[in-house]
Design goal:
Blueprint (H helix, E strand, L loop, with lengths): L2 H20 L8 H17 L4 H21 L7 E5 L11 E5 L2
Antiparallel strand pairs: 1-2
Helix pairs in contact: 1-2, 1-3, 2-3
Length: 102
Amino acid sequence: MNRQADHKQQRYQAELLIKRLARLSADSTWARRASGLRATIDKTLATNDEKNYIYMHSLIEQGFVLLENAAREIPVPEDIILTSVSSKQTLEGTNYRLKLVY
């Protein structure tokens, strides 16, 4: 692959990463870090300097690690189990409640 194609691919990954990081829930412990990383990636993209190639590669790697960590916070649907509640503990006339299993 030539250098121009590498830069084009890197730019595409950076722009995609910015969009994905922006979609993190504000409740996520990773949201604040994502905000700072997004701003840094955006600023680095704006400079469009040849020297930023290695730096941008590092930022992209950090971004994907951050996304992986944020994804680990999302409960898996299979881990949400309906459990029976005794008739004394019924909530608003239902006999079931949601229980998160970690």
